Amino acid sequence: MISHELDYHIHGDDMQVVAITLDPKETVIAEAGGMNWMEDGISFSSRTGDGSKPEQGFFGKIMDVGKRVLTGESIFMTHFTNDSNQRREVSFAAPYPGKIVPLDLKQLGGEIFCQKDAFLCAALGTEVSIAFTKKFGTGFFGGEGFILQKLKGDGLAFLHAGGTIVKKELNGDKLRVDTGCIVGFGPGIEYDIERAGNLRSMVFGGEGMFLATLQGKGTVYLQSLPFSRLADRVLMHAPKHGGSSKGEGSVLGSLGRILDGDNS
What span, in angstroms and rounded, lies between the C-alpha atoms of 204 and 237? Predict the structure, then answer.
């Protein structure tokens, strides 16, 4: 299915919103709960598929639902269609601080593999499915598990990721990456896992026991702040026992908590 052609504008810097302008009868698909605002004339419906295979039968739809359950996403995708006779706008935002990456799938060889929570929205006609990592070690130690999302089509798709996004072009060389910092990569890239140096480096290096390796010819997208890293840091400094937290770096320790009124 040929994808619908989308016009878009990305607002903001660290908490970005992508506003997509739809021509009459054009449709954009998105993960449930990603919409921010939409203009009058746009209708939306929740469906179990991405709409890339309109002739798909009942069992095909059941398979799609099963795949989305494996990725941890909602079993439904939302389709936003411009039912008016004028151009209308609908917008989507990432659920945490970071960047939105617009991708022209045609220029990327028709498909891209990405971490399972990176997909935000795409033109109708884009196939959103899953791909299993080929090696047991990659899935077991890769940080993102065995399952990646696979986007296939010839139109625009939008990913979101944490912090700053870096695009790199590999030409047969090898790149070692923290397992959580991968956003996505093209079909010409091989994804694997290797040990992070010797035993001392693995235990005391602070970079984890394993690193992801990306090798081949194609495009790679990396993120500086994976959501898991952000969540770990927030939990580390969260107040204990429901009390107020002392300032980060404070030398007062428990005395600071007493002065704050926390005597626990």
Answer: 22
